[in-house]
Each structure stands twice: as C-alpha cells, then as structure tokens.
Write a structure and sequence with these properties.
- The chain has 14 helices and eight strands.
- With 525 residues, it is of the alpha+beta class.
- Among the domains are: 140 residues, no CATH class; 71 residues, no CATH class; 103 residues, no CATH class.
- The strands form two sheets. The chain has a six-stranded antiparallel beta sheet, with helices on one face.
- Helix 1 packs across helix 11, helix 4 packs parallel to helix 6 and helix 11 crosses helix 12.
- The radius of gyration is 35 Å and the shape is elongated.
Length: 525
C-alpha cells in the first residue's frame, strides 16, 4: 500500500502583499517509488555516492507532480505551503531507518580513513626527527663529532620537512566533496607505499644503528636525509597520479536526464567510474536546469485520459465469440483518437499565449515598481524630502505592486515551488542594493536557471545511487554506460573515447599568390 500525503497549500505571503486570498486546495499525492530492476540476465552493480551529511537534501523537500492534476492547475493551484499535514507508512519508516543506518556506516568509514591518514602522516613527519635525536639521547658520549657538515644537514632536513608539510597540506588536506562507494585505488596505493617505506627504514635503523649503537653520527644524519628525499619523491608521484594524470581529455561522456531528456556533453581524462560519476554530478548542478516535475504533469494526464477513453463489454457471456466486433470497436476508437495531436497543438498554443501575456504583465509591473526607487547621492541625503529607507525596506515597499503579476507568472510556468516570498524579497533587495535594472531582477524568473541557483533545501540530493555493470573502481572505457539514480529521476551516462586524430601538413608557396586582371578589348563608352 503506497503512502499518501495530504498537503494544505496556502500562499499567505503573496496574499498579504497583494490583498487577495486564495482558497486552499487539498491534493492527493502519490510518492514516486524508485523502479526496481526486473532483468535478471544483467549483472548490475549498484553502489551509492553520498554527499557530506552537513548539507541539506534534494529529493525530500521537492514537490511531487500529481498524476491527476487538472488542466487549470496554473490558474487555481498554489504550491508554496504554509501548513502541511503528513501521513507516513511502514515502508517509509523502514526506508528512513535504512538511510540512517547507511549514513552512520558512511560516517564511521570516513572517520576511520581520516584517523589512519592522520596517524600515518604523524609517523612520517616524526620519523626523520627521531632518527636524528635517538642517538643523541641514548649514546651521546660515544658519538663521533660531526661539526659543520651535520649542521648543514640539519638545515636541509628542516627545510625539506617544511616543504613536504606544505605540499601535503595543499594536496591532501581538503574538504571532502562526497563519500565514494569504494576506496580510491591510487590513494590507497600511495598509503601502502609510504607505510612500506617508513617500515623498511625503521627496520634497517633498528638492526644496523640501534642494536650496534653506531658512532658515525654523520652517517646517521645522512640516513635521515635520504628518508626525507624519498618522501619528497613519493609526494611528487602523488601529484602525478592524483592530479596530472586526469587532466588530458581522453573520453567524451553524454549525460541525459531520464525524465525530460535534457542532455550535456563533457570531456574527461583517465578516471575511475566512481570518480567520473562525481565529476558528472558536480557539473549537473551547475549546467542542468532545475528539475521541475510539474512540467511533466500535463502530458501524463493527457495520456491517461486517452487510455481510459474506451471500454468493451461482453454482454452475451464468455462463451460467445465477439472478438471480431471488439476489434472493430477498438479500431474505430483508435481512429477517433488519431485527432489527439490537434488537442495537443491547441493546448500548447494556449499555454504559450497565457505565458506571453503574463510575462508582459510582469515586465510592466516590475518596471513600474522600479521607477519608484531612486538612489540618493551623498550630497542629496541631507535635503531629500522623501523618506529614506534601506534596501530591505525599499524591497518590501515596492513588492506589493508586482506580487500578483509575479505570482500568476510563476504559477503558469510552474515555478512557484522554487521561489518563496522570502527568497524573492532577498533577491529584490540585492538588486536594489547593487543598482540593477528591472531586466536583471527578472532574469531569475523568466528563464529557468541551473540547479545551484535555487534554495539548497529544495534541490540538494541526500544520496545518489551508481548503477554500473563494471566495477566502479575500474577506469573509463569506450562504450561503458552507467546510471546515477536519485529519488525522482536518473542520469544516464554514455562514455565514448575521443578518436585518434591524424593531421597532415601542406605547404603553400607565398609566391604562388599572383593574379592577372583580364580586361575586355571592347568596352562600353
């Protein structure tokens, strides 16, 4: 049994400024369930990519598109809610508890990795210092004098450790952008390599220096210097593997959103599938327009209405043969439904007409509202006859004159769930503060922007699921297809290798650019 959610929608903010109250509607909403794979022949591997828990989520607060919405939705329905009542089922409770368990496990995994990296880093930086100080502490009197050579080596070790510390901070100490489902292979390889190097140096130091109490202090200091040099080379190797290797484009990926077919192309280097998925998600929030499920409602309702247009009954009983008559009736109904393209044409034409009309009203209302605001110069502030206001007060003063036109336009274009009254006031005060024109203010509402433009509580996804037939730690290859799923839609990624390009050169002699002007012998006078 699917869960239901009854939402009582009110638009109290707009109604307060415009002076018009809207009747609240109760609408039944069906939760969209993520499709389950039914194809047993394909061995798909599904893993998850989870963003840091401190950031808010997408799918939970986004409004769902109703299946049975009427055609006058843009005229009668509001979606910015003031109060809401929710009912939840056992399936939702189980899903929420599973998400909490997954988040706890991911947090533990992330903190464990950070702990191991911190302990290993501390060991790496303290080891050369320990190599130099232990002989001074344990058998100081037996050491041979070193003099100026050791002092120069001390300075070299100090500066090399400082350079290594700065480089390690720049390369590894970064805010994590996401929790990947599998370990990063190159990073794990570097950790193992560093551990083996330090362990080998400690083993040799314990056998050859500590046990025998070597008195050649200059050789001990040079041994520590050699460890620092090896660590610097490993840091250079880390830069090559983690940063430089992926810079050269080798693959072109096509990303398609499953619901509306919007697509983008990106160039990627040598990356694993999970890291390529992370790059795709970062570019998705920047390049793709915000996902609006309300735009898909009209086509769904129209298809459902046409599918329910015919019913065939057998009144003579199941034993009689009426299949021929039934087929004739179905064919006749199909011919009648062939004219549905006319209905679609007139619906879209009417919608475009209403959008243009309300867009024109909104532009005029905003331009008239902005004419009432004038920035006072410094010398005019003392003698200004009118009341002086800060940008917030000015935005609140002119907002009522444009509120109704803006509200109707957002409803018609089905964008009202992405713009609250508070966000509109903040944007309006921002435009007033920076002396922006009405066209600059309207740009956010006339054209759907990228996902990052809107309130993070409404768009940011808690969890993405990566579905791939190949191991997610394997590198990209030509023809690989993987899918990134969230609660409402999925991103289908198709990988193509950039072809090998062969260029040839052709030399053109500059002296060959000579021309002759041919004139006719007989010319008109």
């Amino acid at each position: 049994m699917s869960a239901t959610m009854d939402t009582e929608s009110t638009y109290s903010g707009y109604s307060h400024y415009s002076g018009h109250s809207k009747k609240a509607h109760r609408q039944g909403r069906d939760r969209h369930k993520s499709p389950r794979s039914k194809d047993g022949s394909r061995s798909e591997k599904s893993v998850t990519i989870q963003t840091p828990p401190a950031e808010p989520l997408l799918g939970n607060d986004a409004s769902r598109a109703e299946e049975g919405q009427d055609d006058n939705w843009g005229e009668t329905t509001t979606a910015i809610t003031g109060t809401s009542e929710h009912s939840i089922s056992q399936e939702d409770i189980a899903r929420i508890s599973k998400d909490l368990e997954d988040s706890v496990g991911l947090d533990c995994k992330r903190y464990l990795g950070l702990t191991v990296a911190a302990v290993l880093g501390l060991l790496v930086f303290l080891t050369p210092i320990a190599f130099i100080l232990l002989p001074q502490i344990l058998w100081r009197d037996d050491l041979e004098p070193c003099g100026t050579v050791c002092e120069g080596l001390f300075i070299s070790v100090a500066f090399k450790l400082l350079i290594l510390l700065i480089g390690t901070w720049a390369l590894f100490f970064r805010q994590p952008k996401a929790d990947l489902p599998r370990v990063f292979v190159f990073r794990a390889f570097l950790v193992v390599l560093i551990f083996l190097l330090v362990f080998s140096y400690w083993l040799f130091y314990g056998v050859r220096i500590l046990d025998s109490k070597d008195t050649n202090y200059q050789g001990i200091v040079q041994y520590a210097v050699s460890l620092v040099d090896a660590l610097l080379f490993i840091h250079y190797l880390a830069i090559v593997l983690l940063e430089l290797r992926q810079l050269q484009p080798m693959f072109t990926v096509k990303v398609v959103r499953s619901t509306d077919g919007e697509s983008r192309y990106y160039s990627l280097g040598h990356l694993s599938i999970q890291r390529a998925a992370l790059v795709v998600l970062e570019n998705y929030y920047r390049d793709f327009t915000v996902y609006n499920p309300a735009l898909l409602t009209a086509s769904k309702s129209r298809a459902a209405k046409h599918m329910a247009g015919l019913k065939v009954y057998n009144v003579d009983g199941p034993g009689n043969n009426v299949s021929g008559q039934s087929r004739a009736m179905i064919a006749a109904a199909a011919r009648r439904r062939d004219s549905s393209h006319n209905e679609l044409y007139y619906e879209e034409a009417d919608h475009e007409r209403r959008v243009k009309k309300r867009r024109a009203r909104l532009v005029v209302a905003v331009e008239e509202a902005f004419t009432h605001i004038k920035r006072l110069q410094a010398e005019e502030q003392q003698k200004a006859p009118g009341e002086m206001m800060d940008p917030r007060e000015a935005a609140q003063a002119i907002f009522p004159s444009m509120a109704r036109a803006l509200q109707k336009y957002l409803r018609t274009t089905r964008q009202q769930q992405y713009h609250s009254m508070e966000s509109i006031l903040q944007h309006l005060s921002f435009c007033i503060t920076n002396n922006m024109t009405p066209k600059a203010f309207l740009e956010r509402y006339l054209n759907p922007g990228p996902t990052l433009q809107y309130d993070r509580d409404r768009w940011f996804s808690k969890q993405w699921t990566l579905v791939s037939e190949e191991a997610v730690t394997s590198g990209l290859q030509d023809g690989i297809v993987f899918v990134l799923k969230c609660l409402d839609f999925s991103l289908v990624v198709n990988v193509k290798k950039i072809p090998f390009i062969k260029l040839s050169e052709e030399f053109i002699d500059p002296k060959s650019h000579k021309f002759v002007l041919r004139l006719q012998s007989e010319t008109s006078v």
